[in-house]
Amino acid sequence: MRLTCIIILVLLFSEVRAQYFQFSQFDFTPDRVNPALISSSNDITASVIYRRQDISETMSIKSANAFISYPFLNNRNKRWSALGISFLDDRTGVTNIYKVNEVGLTYALSLPISRQDELSLGVKGIYQSRRFSLDGLYTGSQFVPDRGFLPGMDNGETLDGLRQNLYTFSIGMGWRHLDRKGVQQSYLGLSFFDFNRPEQSFYGSDDQLPTSFVLAGNFLIYQQGALSVYPEATYTASASKSVVNLGAVSKYDMGVNGSWEAEVNVITKYSSGGYAIAGLQVDKGDFKIGFSYDFSLNDKPLNNAFEVGLLLRAERSPNKKRHRSRKSKRKPKVKSKTTSAKKVKRPIKEVDKPQRNDNLIENSDTILVDTDKNEELEVAEDSIATDARVGEFQHHTLNLDETNVLFYFDFNSTEINQESKEYILELSELLKQAPYLKVKIIGHTDNKGSADYNEKLSAIRCNSVTDLLVSLGVERERIEVESKGEESPISTNDTEEGRSKNRRVEFILHY
To answer: 352 and 296, same structural domain?
Structure first.
């Protein structure tokens, strides 16, 4: 009887596990879809998901997975790779007679190929333990005369020979297209799981684990107001079996038309395995919770499954030490041939909250500045010009990758006047509200004085503006400075009017 049960169990569960296993809400388990996916987030993430799938009227598969990922940032605080670790506990049968436990380690690289496109490459290694266990089986050996049935006693059954440990390796690559805010618009990925094909037989026969091939993709097909729709497709092939999942995830941003800052995702999919998937997720940014149900499209209960998942996110802290190091290097000291430059402190006067300025940047939100304290800005003031003041200041509509704003300076001046400070306050709020934007500051002078001196003077002007932006909360690594001196005039240097136009600082916004 025992041998018969063993043979039946081996045949049954070998068939059940022939197909590569996927959770229906695979955004909680990205490494199981493609190892390269873990490098797609700047956040530290941790997720858990539980799934119960019926395989008969009396038997089910219970699966629990935990996943943690950590992104790595370069010296400019840009994500370049990520490390992930996963744990899976999978139990099958009335008494959890068949158990699979695994630990996975995943590493992925993120390679930007354009401003809005990135390529990712990932590898994953798994240690897996499979075994049959009769610990939950009750037998007559647990009956004691005059005492009755004692479930805590040994049942007298062992399956020590039905245990196996194996190692598997997987690889994947993916492409993502992002919008200007860094939100994914489309994705396409290809991955190969268990490509080393380890031996999986419990009896040492020639039975290798098949390699599984997964092709997955999605794209934004519709967006109107708070609603966006992403069709999705996943193709999984293993040995002679294949499954196609087709459907869509509809996302509704509750913060667009209401005060509740959350996104609601509705999942609707169909599987060629004979079942449909319906799910609901609520994403609050720092956490996401999701539920889904797989229901059979025929009369059999096979494949009916319920899932519940939770994902937590935490912002990755920037590399502060490197940031301070770069900051100290970007403060040039300038000395004049006639007398040395000195540092003077000029208080930044309190400014009123600016009104809405729709011309600040196309399609931007209202920018509100709230300041209630005085700050100081260190400016290197050349001793040649002691009473010089800033000239005319011009506002322009900000266009990406174009020269947008001009600050005009008097001769040898590095001073920022109050009107310019107010605009820089607005610009700092825009940069803080749009962390995907960067700014390039370019300094220019007229041709009065030596070329070397003018280049240093333009650097001082750039750093005056840079220091003000940093003091207002803009990260220094998002600011690029270029001092061109007198080499790029926009007007003639033969007249005072032309030279006044050439003494300027330009802003260029870019991604």
So the answer is: no
